Amino acid sequence: MIVVVDFGSQYTQLIARRIRECKVYSEIVSCLVDLSVLDDMNVEGIVLSGGPGSVYEVDTNAYRHIFSGTAPVLGICYGMQLAAQVFGGKVRKTKTREYGLARLTRRLNPLFSGVPRSFNVWMSHGDVVVRVPEGSRVIASTETTPIAALQMGTFHGLQFHPEVRHTQYGQRIIRNFVSKICDARKTWSMRRFVDEEVVRIKKTVGRDRAICAISGGVDSTVAGTIAARALGKNLIGVFVDNGLLRMNEREEVKKSLSAIMNLRVIDARARFLDRLAGINDAEKKRKIIGHEFIRIFEAEARRVRDVKYLVQGTLYPDVIESGKGIGPADVIKSHHNVGGLPKKMHLKIIEPLRMLFKDEVRAIARYLKLPRSFIDRKPFPGPGLAVRIVGVVNPARLEMLRRADQIISEEAHKLKDYRDIWQIFAVLLPLGSVGVMGDKRTYDSVCAIRAVSSDDGMTADWVRLPHDFLNRVARRVVNEVKGINRVVFDITSKPPATIEWE
Ligand code: XMP
Known about the structure:
By secondary structure, this protein is of the alpha/beta class. The chain folds into three domains: 2-181, Class I glutamine amidotransferase (GATase) domain (Rossmann fold), CATH 3.40.50.880; 190-375, Rossmann fold (3-Layer(aba) Sandwich); 388-489, GMP Synthetase, Chain A, domain 3 (2-Layer Sandwich). Helix content is 30%, strand content 25%. The protein contains 13 helices and 18 strands. The chain has a nine-stranded mixed sheet, sandwiched between helices. Helix 5 (218-231) crosses helix 10 (358-367) and helix 7 (269-276) runs antiparallel to helix 8. It is globular, with a radius of gyration of 27 Å. The protein starts with a strand and ends in a 13-residue tail after the last strand. Residues 321-340 have low confidence and may be disordered. Xanthosine-5'-monophosphate binds at residues 286, 337, 379, 381-383, 387, 423, 457, 494, 498-500. The site of xanthosine-5'-monophosphate has 13 residues, from loops.
């Protein structure tokens, strides 16, 4: 494997991911642990990540051990400066921080095999190497950074970040290091990932039990499936029907997941709808739903004996956002995507997907042969349809929204670009509108179609849906859903609007 030593860079996981893209297994080790752990790992190469600190402020002797073995080392940014200092070079603060694209000119070196003489690289640093250690040579420079890459035996250092997409040929450089310099074996695969996580979970949980909150989305389904392979009946999946699900959703989740794990489906519809009765305010609705969810989950954790662990489908982007580093089992965090589970539950968390990105998880879902309907699932908010009914939620309005949403979803699946749409759904507005049906005046509700494209949900644009699609959906909704007599199409981006209406 290639070990990435993490010095606190925001890109550490990205480095590991780029190495996995070369089909070579990669693990991350924190720079805070005793690095003699490297001796017990099957290390074929080491990458030192960037980091926010300055190497002249730390005792770099502690890191000498990294260079004592035979494995080649690649230092990126802070990692290169660290090696330079360890071997007697000099690192200094630059007058101005360099941040963004720079034009790099390279010399001949196996690290740059197949890469043009000059290309754009991404820089993000406040320190530079100003004197190289004896026995090393400079292998690339930019106009402002004469020592932009260096080599010393099997050590290579890069001042720029090859792992970010802005760096041209970055992946090629990483591949050169991994295959030409380390000669690492290409053993990484989905199968190996799943097998190793299964072993790891088995070892951690032992004879105890674990529960997993199942939302019906791809992340919790994949995490639960892997845990179920490890623990069998001792993994209890908990799926709560809060009455705010889409049409047939409970049955679909139950049918697909009962075959994979020991699944408990809790019918809490009445309880949620009772608490939501008469509530108009969106944030109040969210709080009530989050609170009820916690109470149900606590009761479940108490009901099942010997439960010590909670399996979560947290992905790498969630880990970065919560500012958490590497670690096997942390005390539960309060901000959870299924509704902020409380600290006092004292469950240890297991997050098998914490190193991965969404597309890697979808690939694992395909490898696990999960149903297509799960793999292609669009994100769905924890508070469900409650935040898609503007204003008061009640069974009649839920039924109307469910039917309209089902029609949109059915038609959307036939669209050529369905996969490129981030979310497409119906929203029920708190408006009455006059209509005429069969010569009779009607006064019914208005429904909006919302469809957005997005990479991460943070920003979004509205999808230019074909007119015949809009026409078909509008006609079907008004004809088939009693209580809706008008359909409108939302054409605002985020910002200034948000994706959900509430
Ligand atoms: P907004 O509406 O903020 O949505 O543009 C961004 C993304 O987050 C989802 N969303 C939620 N997810 N609990 C969730 O788990 C929530 O309360 C919630 N509100 C919005 C939304 O569907 C979109 O993908």
